[in-house]
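Would you mind writing out the residues of a protein together with its fold in token form for me to study?
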Amino acid sequence: MSRNIESHDSVLLLQECSSGCKMALESMDDIRAHVEDKQLRQLIDKYYDEHVKLGVDCRDMLDGIGADTKEPGMFAKAAAKMQTAMKMAMNDDRTQAAKLLTEGCNMGIETISSSINEYRDADEKSVAIAERLRNIEDHMVGDLQPLI
């Protein structure tokens, strides 16, 4: 069987990547509002830009086949926003922000890894996008470690 971008699994995988990018961007925006540390701000900006670019690539691929992007779940968004606000209100230092970002990246890695496994019939381009997202999250975790 030939796997192509129009396959159901390809669409679902790309939609998960789109949702993951949006969730990451919202989380970074929430945390950035509390961050004054120049090094952490630069790191957030770097990975923010990478998530934006990947999100655009997802949207372009989905647009090309007439499929919609996917929004993060309302509960997940609200829970992440509330967790960030509470934890940063108790301690708004660089370490706390880096820990929250690391937790978010680890959840993203877990989610996208599960999606890659679940949508086994996705085409190579869609899988490559998902792996790119997983790699971005993994590199961000590595870059955050010295700040924790």
In short: The two ends are 47 Å apart (CA to CA).
